Amino acid sequence: MLQQPAMELRQVMRQSVTTVDVHAPLSWAAREMRLHGVGVLPVRKWGHVVGVLTEHDVVAHGLAGADASDTSVGQVMSTSLAWCADDAPLWEAARAMSHSGAKQLLVVDLAGAPVGVLTADDLARLPPDELRPPLDADQLDTLDTGELPSTD
Length: 152
Description:
The chain has 6 helices and 6 strands, in the order βαββααβαββαα. It has a 3-stranded mixed β-sheet with strand order 1-2-3. A 3-stranded mixed β-sheet has the order 4-5-6. It starts with 19 loop residues before the first strand and ends in a 7-residue tail after the last helix. By secondary structure, it is an alpha/beta fold.
């Protein structure tokens, strides 16, 4: 029984990444989100990603009654980043999202530059088997014989 190679993250992620500078006005970033139809913007400072701005951040700021034109992206962004390498299998990305509690995952290349974004909605459209780690050869042998895999 041969197992199909796992799909890679780059096959599913949204490949167009719009970034925003940490000093940009929040109102401008919100317009960029709407214009590009995205719910997350990687935030950069001096060319490096230092956080993310999500729709939730923008809405929460607005509900607090603050003026988005007087607020910089850096004042409301999240500095806790959930990320994964673009050549990672989907199950690793799903695990990273699950462990971080993030709804969006920043996808980076070998140099650490953002190359895509994966969302929980993207994962929800996939067959469940793509989100499970692959079985090793011993586990496949026991499945063929009808025995349960060992948890040792």
